From TrEMBL:
Gene3D superfamilies cross-referenced by the UniProt entry: 1.20.1280.50, Ribonuclease Inhibitor
SMART domains on file: FBOX (SM00256)
Top-level taxon of the source organism: Eukaryota
Identification of the protein by name: F-box domain-containing protein
A Pfam entry, by short name: LRR_2
Record-annotated F-box domain positions: 18-64
Family annotation (PANTHER family): EMB|CAB62440.1-RELATED (PTHR31900:SF34), F-BOX/RNI SUPERFAMILY PROTEIN-RELATED (PTHR31900)
InterPro entries: F-box-like_dom_sf, F-box_AtFBL13-like, F-box_dom, FBD, FBL13/AtMIF1-like, LRR_dom_sf, LRR_PRU1-like
C-alpha cells in the first residue's frame, strides 16, 4: 500500500529537475569551449539543437597529437572557418615545417591573433607568414628547438611573448628574437635542463611585465644566469635558485616586484628595485649590510628573513604594510635566527599601519596580525614590537 501511495504521489507531483546548463549564456559556453581540443568542441554539436551550431562561433582552435583527429583533417577544418583568433598546436616529433607552415598561413589569412606551438624538442623555424604580420599579438613557444631568426625580419605586432623551455643555437639567438619585437610589453621566460642558453640577455626598452622561472634541478657548470635591461618595466617576477650570474639594470618605472633568488651580492639587485611600491623579497643570502633607499615602498613582504632584515627599512619613509615570513612557503630554505635590532627604523614609528609575522619561533603560535597602535615600540631596541596575537 505504501509503495502504491509513493508511486501515485510521484505521478501527481512529478519532480522537475532544473536544467542549469540551458540557463548558461552563450558567451560563457563559448569561453568554456575555447579550453577544449577542437575535436571535442565539434562533438558538442550532437548534444541538442542549441549546441548544433553553437560550436561554429568558437574562434580558439586546439590540436593535441594525443587525440585521434588527424592533422590533415584539422588543417581542412581550419580552412573551413571564417575566423581564427587563437591557434594552439601540440605536436609530436614526427611533424615538420612542411606540415605546419600551410596551417599557420591559413590561420593568418583568418586574422590570427595568438599562436602557441609545443613541439616536444624538435627543430622549428618560425613561418615566414608571421613576419611583418601586424595582427599577431601573442606568440607562445614551448619545448622546441628554435632555428635562427633570419635577417631583416620583424614580428611587428607581437606584444606578448612566452619562451618556455626553448632551445636556442646560441646566447645571441635570444637577443635576436627579442630585438625583432619592437612592441613587446609582456615576456615570460622559463628555463629548464633542456635550455642551452648560458646568459639569457633581456634588453627590451618597451617591456612592461617580465616573469622569469628557472626550474633546473641542479646548477649547471660555468657561468649562467640573466641580464635584464628594461627601463620601462612596471611588474617584475623572478624565481631562480640556480643562476650564479644576475645583473639587473635600473627600473625607474617599477611598481610591483616579486624576487626569489640566491644571491651572494644583493646590493646591485636591491638597487635596481629601489623605485618599486610593492616588494615581495626572498633573498637567499645571509648578508644585507647595505643602505638601499626605498623612497616609494608602500608594501613589503620578506621571506626567509636574514638577521639583518631591519637594514632594508632604514630608508623606507612611507612604508605602510610589513609582512615577515620566517621561511618561504615553497622552499626548504634554512631559517635564519632572530637578531634584536639596535634601533627601530623610523618607518615603524610613523607610517606603518599593518604588520604580520608568520612562522615565527614561538610554540603553538605560527602567525599573528597586529596594529602598530596596539604594540609597544622601544627606540632603545629593548623591544622592537610587542607581538599582540589577535583572536
Amino acid at each position: 500500500m505504501r509503495n502504491q501511495i509513493r508511486r501515485r504521489g510521484t505521478r501527481r507531483n512529478p519532480i522537475r529537475r532544473r536544467d542549469t546548463v540551458s540557463e548558461i549564456p552563450d558567451e560563457l559556453l563559448l569561453t568554456i569551449l575555447s579550453f577544449l581540443p577542437s575535436k571535442d568542441v565539434v562533438a558538442t554539436s550532437a548534444i541538442s539543437k542549441r549546441w548544433k551550431s553553437l560550436w561554429k562561433e568558437v574562434k580558439t582552435f586546439r590540436y593535441d597529437d594525443s587525440y585521434p583527429l588527424t592533422f590533415n583533417m584539422f588543417a581542412l577544418f581550419i580552412r573551413s572557418r571564417s575566423s581564427v583568433d587563437i591557434l594552439q598546436l601540440k605536436l609530436n616529433p614526427g611533424f615538420s615545417r612542411t606540415n605546419i607552415n600551410p596551417l599557420v598561413k591559413d590561420a593568418v589569412a583568418r586574422s590570427l591573433r595568438e599562436l602557441r606551438i609545443e613541439m616536444l624538442y624538435i627543430s622549428f623555424e618560425l613561418p615566414q607568414c608571421l613576419y611583418f604580420y601586424p595582427q599577431l599579438e601573442t606568440l607562445i613557444l614551448q619545448k622546441l628547438s628554435l632555428v635562427d631568426i633570419p635577417s631583416n625580419v620583424s614580428l611587428i605586432g607581437v606584444k606578448k611573448l612566452h619562451i618556455l623551455s626553448v632551445r636556442f643555437s646560441s646566447d645571441e639567438s635570444v637577443i635576436k628574437l627579442l630585438s625583432i619585437c619592437p612592441l613587446l610589453e609582456d615576456l615570460v621566460v622559463r628555463r629548464s635542463l633542456y635550455t642551452n642558453v648560458m646568459i639569457f640577455t633581456i634588453d627590451v626598452p618597451t617591456l612592461k611585465n617580465l616573469c622569469i622561472y628557472n626550474s633546473w634541478k641542479s646548477r649547471p657548470e660555468g657561468v649562467h644566469g640573466f641580464v635584464v635591461n628594461a627601463p620601462s618595466l612596471r611588474c617584475f617576477n623572478i624565481k631562480d635558485s640556480f643562476s650564479n650570474y644576475l645583473r639587473f639594470g635600473n627600473m625607474p618605472e617599477l611598481v610591483k616586484a616579486s624576487v626569489n633568488i640566491v644571491c651572494d651580492q644583493p646590493e646591485d639587485i636591491l638597487g635596481s628595485l629601489a623605485s618599486t611600491r610593492h616588494l615581495s623579497l626572498c633573498l637567499q643570502s645571509p648578508y644585507l649590510h647595505l643602505a638601499t633607499s626605498f623612497l616609494f615602498l608602500d608594501h613589503l613582504e620578506l621571506f626567509s628573513c636574514p638577521s639583518q632584515w631591519c637594514n632594508l627599512l632604514k630608508d623606507a619613509p612611507i612604508l605602510r604594510v610589513l609582512k615577515l615570513y620566517q621561511k618561504h612557503s615553497q622552499s626548504n630554505d634554512v631559517t635564519y635566527s632572530w637578531n634584536q635590532p639596535i634601533s627601530v627604523p623610523e618607518c615603524l614609528m610613523s607610517h606603518l599601519e599593518s604588520f604580520e609575522w608568520r612562522q615565527w619561533h614561538r610554540p603553538r603560535e605560527r602567525s599573528c596580525k597586529v596594529h602598530p597602535k596596539k604594540c609597544e615600540l622601544s627606540k632603545e631596541g629593548v623591544v622592537l614590537l610587542k607581538i599582540c596575537k589577535e583572536t
